[in-house]
Amino acid sequence: MYIVAGMVRWAFPIKRCSAHPKKLGLLVAVFTLGYICIDRNIFFLDRVSSKLPRDILSVDSKYAGGSAKNADQKVDLYHSGVDEMHLSELSKGVTEKEVENMKQTVQYLTLDDIRDGQAESNTKKLDGASMCPEVEDNPNMKGPIPQAVLLIDNLKESEVASIHPELSPGGQWAPDDCKPRHKVAVIIPYRDRQSHLTRLLYFLIPILKRQKLDFRFIVTEQWGNDLFNKGRIMNAAFRLAERLGTDCVIFHDVDMFPQDDRNPYSCPPAPRHLGAFVSNLGYQLWYKEIVGGALAISMADYRAVNGYSNMYWAWGGEDDDMGKRILSLNYTIERPNPVTGRYSMLKHVKRKRTAPKLIYKLLEIAEQRVATDGLNETDKWNVVKMEVRPLYYHMYVDVLEVPEEWRGNGKES
Ligand SMILES: *[C@@H]1O[C@H](CO)[C@@H](O)[C@H](O)[C@H]1NC(C)=O
Ligand SMILES: *[C@@H]1O[C@H](CO)[C@@H](O)[C@H](O)[C@H]1NC(C)=O
User: Which residues does the UniProt record annotate as the domain Galactosyltransferase C-terminal (predicted)?
Assistant: First the structure.
């Protein structure tokens, strides 16, 4: 969907740090980044990113116009190429994700092992404590968030886990000085972006803690390598969130980084499109049904719209379809404050819509498919494996057969 408006102007020339911050602890790394690389641009980025967000973090070579090639090379440090090279020497033939996974203590589960939120509910004693403040009234929020951590592309999950010993398995946490008002599951659809995922977790954990939420993370990954069906893996993850007894879910793309901690990750009364103002999109809202990037929605509303469509393959469509579902039920789409609701989007290799005509055809009749195509369907995915990692629940979802017409091969468009 973001393809619609991939209009990016230019990038600052950012150089890679020559020093490798790996050996220093993570926090040290964050600070040393500024010293070791006395590179005025990185300094500049960190200092002004919140005031003057530009597309430094996201240059899309396809849409950036004439100087794109050059700009693209300059910001290429955001692409995980470095990690991949590094890892391919470490472990030939093993993916980055597998390397991360091997290093962790993991508990294997089935959906039936998780019982209606009881097993996982926070057991801390809060008798007599008062309710936590709503994010809007919370005096601990800091406002603009430095974005320099986005430059660290070799952060490891184990490092993030070790600086957050207060998290329970599954990346769960709840405040112990007040009663949380919101029990939230952040659902991250995942494919091949380990370095983005690690940074996102590193980034979100302190924000969610400051917001005094009861939270956990669900990383939902498609089993196998065939065409992506994001709708199905998100629906599958919602079923897990139901088991965990959350009040709402937040669907969060792995490359979306909030620029301000006052953007509320709490449970909204009406579907809340958190990712409304994004660096790649010129911080503008492009059409009314846009809900991609980050969407918070209550369990009841998600069931009412029958979840995401299961019918979109490859890339794009399911988010706009969701927007149409929400509007077709006359729900409003809540959006954050344009100042505090900004996101940086990390650069990645652009995926092409393989079958745009099929997508448009489906979108035209999105409203008519609400009742029949979605969460309701029980035969569109299978959960192959589910694990509880230190920082998140990790589920692998088989999305079953890809219909032939979606295979594109370039002729369709
Ligand atoms: C939404 O509002 C329109 C116009 O007021 C109305 O015709 C329609 O029936 C409503 N739809 C639902 C699902 O309530
Ligand atoms: C789900 O399916 C059932 C049975 O087909 C139907 O009664 C129900 O309305 C559907 N739910 C939604 C949200 O469409």
Answer: 272-348
